[in-house]
Structures are given as C-alpha cells and as structure tokens.
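Working notes for the structural subgroup meeting. M.R. asked for a predicted model of this chain before we commit to crystallization trials. I am recording the input and output together here so anyone reviewing the notebook later can reproduce the run.

Input as submitted:
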Amino acid sequence: MSGFQIRNDIGATVFAILSGISALFLTAWVFSPGGCAGPKDPPITPIPLSSEDTSGLHKKLAEAKASLTAESERRAELAGELRLSRADAAKLGALKAEFEAKSATLSEANAALKAKLNAGAPEAGKLSALQAQLADFKTSSADLNIKIDQLSAEKASLTKKLAAATAAAAAAKATAPMPAPKVDTGKLDALKAETEKLKKQLADEKKACAKSKAAMAGANEKLKKEIEKLKQQIDEALYGEKLKAAADLPALDFPFLINEPIQLDGKVRPVFIELRGMEDTPEALEKVYATLSKDGNTNALHRVPFDSGSAEVTPAEVTRLNELLKGSPKGARFLVVGYASTDGDAKSNHELSSKRASNVAAQVAGIPGVDKNGVQAVYFGQTKRFNANYLSPNRVVEVWRVK
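Returned structure, recorded in token form:
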C-alpha cells in the first residue's frame, strides 16, 4: 500500500505542474496580440523622453530582461521536472499493470488451492489417522525404552554375579589339592637306579681328582726343590768360589733382609754374587760396575751416606731417593747393599751394615710406583772398596736397580 501511496503523490504533483503550465499558457495567450486584447491598436505618436526617463526605461528594460531570463530558466526547470514526472507516470502505469496481473494470478492460485483443499478432504482424514498412529508409536517407544533400561540393569547385575562366581571358582581351584598324578613305577625305579649310579660315578671321579691333585702338588713341590737345586748348581758353575764366599754370612732378622743368597730374586742374584765375590779395592769395584752396567738394565742409582756408628737415613736422603726412583719402570727389582767402615769390631760392623741396608730398603719400598715385593736387602759388613785411605766414604748403602 505504501507503494501506491507514493505513486498517487507523484500523480498529484504531476497534475499540479500541468495545471500551472496550462494557466501560464492561457495568460500568455490572453495578453498576446491575437488574444483577448482584440484588434490592432492604432499607431501611437512617440513622446520625446528626457535622459532621466531614458535611463529609467533602460533600467526597467534590463530588469525585465533579467526577469525574463529567470522565468525562462524556471520554465526550463519545470519542463525537465515535467519530463521526469511523465517518466515516473509511465513507470507508475507499468507497475499498476503488473500489480493487477499479479493480483489476478493470486486470485487464480487461491481458487485452485480452495479446489485442492475441497478435493483433498479424504487425504486430511488419512493424515489425522497417521498422526494418531505416530502418537501411539511414540508411546510404545517410550515403554520399550523403559523395558530396555530394565534389561540393561539386569544384565549388569548378572555380569557382576558371573565375575564374582568366576573369582570364587579360581580361588577354589587354587586352594584345592591337585589330584595325584599317575606314576609309572617301573620307569621311576629305573630313573632312581640311574641317578644313584651317576652319583657314585661322580663321587669316584671326585676322589680320583683329589688324589691326582695331591700327587700333582707333591710333584710340583719336588719339582720346585729340584729347580732350586739346579739354579744353585748353575750359579756355582757360573760363579764358583764367589758364591761360596757370599754364603758365609751371619743370619740376621731385619725387614727386607735376605740371609740366604738362594732366596734372592733371579734378576738381582748376579749383582749380589759379583759384589760379594770381588776384591775389596776401589779398582775392582770400578771393573764390577762396568761389567754389571754394560747391558743397560742394571744400574747403581745412588749411595746413601751414614755417620759413624749410625743407621739413620736423613730427611735429605729420603727426598733424594724419591726423586731418583719415583719414575722406575713397572716390574723393576731393587737390591740394597749395606756397608760399614773398617774401624771397630767386624761382628758389630756386620750388624750395623744390615741395619743400614734394612732402613734404606724400607724407604725404597715406600716410594710410589715401586713394588715393595721387588725390594731385597743384603749386608757385606766392613769394607775399603769405596776408599782405601779414608773411612767415611765406606759408611754407605748402595741402591741397585735391575729392569
């Protein structure tokens, strides 16, 4: 309806504009020469005008021209508006025709719909019946859901009872005594006899093995003695009278001290025999040093000096020993030889030289990297081999290392 109202307003506007234009043309016609003015007026005699009148007329003429121009412009605008209004009126007519056509179509559709409704009355009855059936089905479905829930609860209860019964059966099975297996007594007796036979055989083998071990141990001990005897014979063949002289020593009990040459390590035994059997002179000592050190593996590393009648190793000498021996190769053996000067009693000097050798050996064995089991000490008593004219150079302990 608002669309129609707008179009009516446009029509009224167009009508008003047309009315105004018609009145304008009518007025122009009335005042035109061929209008209501009637016949032609008689000629008028011109009246002379002053300059002021002329100016006023010119002014009025200019105003009239301006008014005419404004009127022409206004008329042009009105003509444009009129043209627009006519286009709108045409559109309005088209819309009105379209509306009437659609109204007719709508009326026809309403009539067809009424006819279909009148013809479909039986179908409406069927629809009502279907709706009733649907309501019944919904009610039955609700009842069925209730029954399903009840059955689910019963199933859960039965499952729980079944689980409990299964657990009880498993527990009863675990605690119930197993039935006694059927045993083939003949095979069992045969197996027992075979087992006893194997046990006896094993016991006999153990006894034989123990007897063999005992015999082997005895043979090994005998072999060791024979080896030591052979070593001694070899040493006697190599060194002869020197070894006999070296064996003529009193037995003393001090740490690291060796009383029997046969107890010396095989690496240091040649050093002991050469030193013990040499002549007691500086010249002989020099020759022995050259002989022992020619292989490059045997060295007289240091001589530790002592005061007269003393066996104490001074702190300075302890430091010196550490400096000389801390880098000794693995597996090296050490022979520590103690001496005393010729002043005093020979027996006392044997004991003094043994104490000096034992104390120095203890220091050597305590140096990091030195195998204490590879350190052995011997004592030679009084000597002049380090200096034949002065006593103090002979109050020493030699430290030999054999790689």
